[in-house]
């Protein structure tokens, strides 16, 4: 029923911020909330975490406004001293009284109920839910700019409901490995039936053309943005999806906050990389950043280049890379496509954080490397090709078939194959030994076949130089074999001398 009600609510198009630093996103989900999130079924989970209502209310964003006098704001056990009753519908009052009624409804919704016990305050919870739905409808259809008083009350209500401590529930044998967390069911907040409507309300309020950014920035300020960013650590993916869309809207509408938002996200990444390696919303924050980076003006500012080097590239370090690698790759590729000279910086950064014992991460690195190389021009390629192909050579010789296979697939990319062919005099001697061994002695037949295909590509590109490399490889192998035989002969002699001494004793 709620889905039907929300589905009927009209949407007003937002006025996009026409600024060169905020361009069109290639990720449409940032612009419009997922319709699947519009369902509003009550969800009750015994394992879900719920913040203390008193603490949540006390931490509400306070701009001097007080909660409605007819409602007890301190819900000790959710016992309400004064009657919590529904207010008249907007349809039942004249236009001149609607704004006053809107404020009264906002105050009514400042009360936060305890959802840990689904049997408590059923009537009051339903009154609040219906009131929240009315607020969503009102903020969508209103004509006329919101006043400062209304904005103050809006932020008060939103803060009272959303800003709460996120206390993660313990999972059995919980670890940060991506393949473990992907199999876990996401923990959900039992108060989601209310939270979702508050998020929808905030989204439509921010996006509304009736919300004046110059006036609203007094209330949607740095403190509000920081608390919103803290909520990205929520374990509920539906909440993070709403937060992503709302943050994107705030970034687009409040130009004055853009540097602060970027800096705050930067700080979250620093804590995640170098301190905790625990934060649930990294993927969503990167998705927002992908759209932001897409809109960066050229030439890139030094601030943006430093962000790439100090925050984005080090994000390859944590063990749980798989949870956000797709979004991270997109952000980094945006930088390379905007400034091809950054390709060398990115490739050397990948080599710095290249995994040694984690094969699944190595496959991800090779996949990202292919995307970066595809956008790399010959001058940048030549600056980093020697250390790069020493690493690729190690991948070609990997006993893990997926790593070797992914490295061999680089030759299937026409642009990369062209770069290799142009610089074959340097690259072929580096990769030839590993390629020759994998084509003859690798345990996986597919790797052998792919190695033979690469052999043919290199042979066709320059038969004479290929023959030189082959002869050099055979000479080196002969020298190694000779050294091995001498080594074995020396040890055999030592053993014979030791045995002779024992016999004399």
TrEMBL record:
Family label: Belongs to the phosphatase 2A regulatory subunit B56 family.
Keywords linked to the UniProt accession: Cytoplasm
GO molecular function, one term: protein phosphatase regulator activity
GO cellular component: cytoplasm; protein phosphatase type 2A complex
Stated name of the protein: Serine/threonine protein phosphatase 2A regulatory subunit
GO terms for biological process, alphabetical: signal transduction
Subcellular localization(s) per the UniProt record: Cytoplasm
Region entry Disordered, spans: 9-33
InterPro entries reported in the protein's UniProt record: ARM-like, ARM-type_fold, PP2A_B56
Annotated organism of origin: Arachis duranensis
Gene coding for it: LOC107481986
PANTHER family given in the database record: SERINE/THREONINE PROTEIN PHOSPHATASE 2A PP2A REGULATORY SUBUNIT B, SERINE_THREONINE PROTEIN PHOSPHATASE 2A REGULATORY SUBUNIT
Functional summary from the UniProt entry: The B regulatory subunit might modulate substrate selectivity and catalytic activity, and also might direct the localization of the catalytic enzyme to a particular subcellular compartment.
Listed transmembrane segments: none
Cross-referenced SUPFAM superfamilies: ARM repeat (SSF48371)
């Amino acid at each position: 029923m709620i889905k039907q009600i929300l589905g009927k609510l009209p949407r007003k198009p937002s006025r996009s911020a026409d600024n060169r630093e905020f361009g069109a996103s290639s990720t449409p989900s940032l612009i419009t909330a997922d319709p699947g999130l519009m369902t509003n079924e009550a969800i009750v989970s015994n394992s879900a975490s719920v913040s203390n209502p008193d603490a949540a209310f006390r931490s509400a964003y306070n701009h001097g406004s007080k909660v409605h006098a007819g409602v007890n704001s301190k819900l000790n056990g959710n016992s309400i001293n004064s009657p919590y009753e529904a207010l008249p519908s907007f349809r039942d009052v004249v236009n001149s009284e609607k704004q006053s009624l809107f404020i009264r409804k906002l105050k009514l919704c400042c009360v936060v109920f305890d959802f840990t016990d689904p049997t408590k305050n059923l009537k009051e919870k339903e009154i609040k839910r219906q009131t929240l739905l009315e607020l969503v409808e009102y903020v969508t259809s209103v004509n006329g700019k919101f006043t400062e008083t209304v904005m103050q009350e809006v932020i008060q209500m939103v803060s009272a409901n959303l800003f709460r401590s996120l206390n993660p529930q313990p999972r059995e044998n919980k670890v940060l490995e991506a393949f473990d967390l992907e199999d876990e069911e996401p923990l959900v907040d039992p108060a989601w039936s209310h939270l979702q409507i508050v998020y929808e309300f905030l989204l439509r309020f921010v996006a509304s053309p009736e919300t004046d950014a110059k006036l609203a920035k007094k209330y949607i300020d740095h403190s509000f943005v920081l608390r919103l960013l803290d909520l990205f650590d929520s374990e509920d993916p539906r909440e993070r999806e709403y937060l992503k869309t709302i943050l994107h809207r705030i970034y687009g509408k409040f130009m004055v906050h853009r540097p602060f938002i970027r800096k705050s996200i930067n700080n979250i990444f620093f804590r995640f990389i170098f301190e905790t390696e625990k934060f649930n919303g990294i993927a969503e924050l990167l998705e927002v950043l992908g759209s932001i980076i897409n809109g960066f003006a050229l030439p890139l500012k030094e601030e943006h280049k430093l962000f790439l080097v100090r925050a984005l590239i080090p994000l390859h370090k944590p063990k749980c890379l798989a949870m956000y690698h797709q979004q991270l790759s997109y952000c980094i590729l945006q930088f390379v496509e905007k400034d091809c000279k950054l390709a060398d910086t990115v490739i050397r950064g990948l080599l710095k954080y290249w995994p040694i014992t984690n094969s699944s991460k190595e496959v991800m690195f090779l996949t990202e490397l292919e995307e970066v190389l595809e956008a790399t021009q010959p001058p940048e390629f030549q600056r980093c090709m020697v250390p790069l192909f020493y690493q690729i050579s190690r991948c070609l010789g990997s006993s893990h078939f997926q790593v070797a296979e992914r490295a061999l697939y680089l030759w299937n990319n026409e642009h990369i194959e062209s770069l290799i062919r142009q610089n074959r005099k340097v690259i072929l001697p580096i990769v030839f030994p590993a390629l020759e061994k994998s084509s003859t002695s690798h345990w996986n037949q597919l790797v052998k076949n792919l190695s033979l295909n690469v052999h043919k590509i290199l042979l066709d590109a320059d038969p004479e130089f290929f023959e030189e490399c082959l002869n050099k490889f055979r000479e080196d192998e002969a020298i190694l074999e000779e050294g091995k035989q001498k080594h074995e002969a020396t040890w055999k002699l030592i053993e014979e001398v030791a045995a002779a001494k024992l016999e004399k004793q």
